Amino acid sequence: MKKKLKSILILLWIVLFYIAHYYFEYKKYIGILQS
Amino acid sequence: MIELLYLIFLLLLSFALGQKILKGIGVDFESHSEKLVFALPLGLAVLAYITFFFGIAGLLYKWIIALVLLSIFVFLIKDIKNALLMSFKFIKNTDKKRLVKWGLGLNFFSVVLVFLSVFVLINFIASFVPPWHFDVIAYHLAVQKIFIRAHEIVYVPYIFYSNLPSLIDAIYLVGLLLYNGILSNLLGYSLGVMLALAMYAFCKRFFNSRVTAILASMIFYSFPMVIRGTRTSHVDVQLALFLFLSLYSIVIYFGSREKNHLILSAIFAGFGSSSKIFGPVGALGILIILIAHILLRAPRNKAQYKTAFFHLSIFCLITLAIFLPWLLKNYFFTGNPVWPAFNDFFNGKYWDSEHQRYVSKLANKRELTIINFLRLPWDMHTQQGKSIGNIDEDESIGPYILAFLPLYFVLPKKNVIINFLFAILFIYIIMWFFLSHVFRHIIVSWPPIAIISAYVISELFRNRYVSKTVKVLLMFTFSFNFLVLSAAVANSMPVALGLETHDQFNSKYPGSIYKASKFINSNLPENAKILLFRDTRGFYLDRDYVWADPLFQLYINYSKFRNEDDFYKELRSIGISHILINTEFEWRGQIVYEHRYSERIMGMMDKLLNKYTVNLYNEDGILVNELKRK
Known about the structure:
The complex is a heterodimer.
Chain A: H1 2-34
Chain B: H1 2-24, H2 32-56, H3 62-75, H4 77-93, H5 96-104, H6 108-126, H7 134-140, H8 142-150, H9 167-178, H10 181-207, H11 210-221, H12 224-229, H13 236-256, H14 259-273, H15 279-296, H16 302-334, H17 343-346, H18 353-363, H19 370-374, H20 376-382, H21 400-404, H22 416-435, H23 446-460, H24 464-489, H25 493-496, H26 502-508, H27 512-523, E1 529-533, E2 544-547, H28 564-573, E3 578-582, H29 599-612, E4 613-619, E5 622-627
Parallel strand pairs in B: 1-2, 1-3
Antiparallel strand pairs in B: 3-5, 4-5
């Protein structure tokens, strides 16, 4: 149970910071894609 | 395609020369990949130094350098033959069944391997594009072309960057001198591939994990900022290679305590220092780690103190000896060995503390507060700090920094190499905090970031609850970065594949400045001397030229001119016959800039144009005017 909880927290952490990165950076990426 | 023949010749020669030097300092790697990643850059850097010394001696002729390279080739023919035999043997001995299983089995790692191969292949094709990126045609290759035209490495007082350490540009000089700028691109590309391979070899040696090794290479090679710089004649990725190889050797030294790996580390630290103004900072980080290692081992007696001091001295002396030619060049040209730093102290030419202050301010806009230091990981991850100057507006390296690096601390098992990489990362971030807010200037930290991320991800794969989601997220990032790469090279593919001529391509990229340069080359006399005003891209000019940029040079010192008459007199006295003006030049969204093209300077130029010049060319926002004789 403890391992499962730890895994969920790790996943949440990764997904959260993935979203944070792409949320703040998407305009720049779109700029590159459009160039 | 002749570039390819030159490239094969240079790479074979570099590898054989590098192998010979490695043997000379008593370093022998068992793994083929380690042999390659150390020998090839080592040999190529030595060839660049040879060309540099011939340039200093005024012997920068294609036939002389070709003859020298051929002589080395003949001298090393046995080693080259062995290298070729080794490659054939390696291919023959590769366990084909395993490779097929690896390649064809549809698993995550074969997909990553395919991604990596596609990235390497696309970058290779995209290297066959004539130079057009701003920095490349403003100084990386433009300065080398000035040297080639003069058959000598000469003092160029009006191009700021020509007086900075530039070993990688000297590698590009070899390419440009022997054939063209595409050969320079291909040499830069080869060093980029070497870095990906070096990271693979590093992970294979220290973690004994092919998974971590391939992931680390792929993560690094697909960073959007690496995508931008790895197939052109820029210097950042190549600088990262030299410093990573120094780091790699020092880690081997920490384990083996063999002096020869320390020497190798110092050689690459020297190459790194000689490559860019931020190179010595990278080398200093490695020196700090070496000192910390020696102190942690706590010498117990006089003999151990002596050995520690001896090893430290070896590292410093070799690094300095390799860096020394650049210091001497600067000393003889400018009077200041560390130009443009400490210029008032050395009383160096064509620079002052005011310009130094502006340029330093450009490199580091951040306020040095604890809050700004603490928010650096967030700013590097999201680039949000650009509004307050904590990080520069630039491309990023992907979502790895905060998504994976902190998770290392919750892993049950810690690894001494990863601890070491965290330590060096911390040192680099501290130094970067005080020196620059441009993320590219800390490129030396990106290989450690990629390796730590790959290590953490490999460990997370052991957890069945996490594994699948992480694989999906990584696939998303690699696919996304593939799109970024495709977008970045889309315009280059027709010319790279021979479907468009170089002239057609350059008429679009860089476009107006290329067409104006063509006009100048065809219509102006051989002895014409052009002032580049509001543009610095002189690579395509076959005439002498001078940068007019008020921020990056003091050869033309605008503060001395009271009016357009003084300006005109100065231009005549330095032999300027024509002025090229890019009326569409803007810098960070601004045309008029307090410390660059100020209203006073722009006004003075307008008056000078009206009073003292005749227009010869006016297309796409670029004017070429002839300076009247009084």
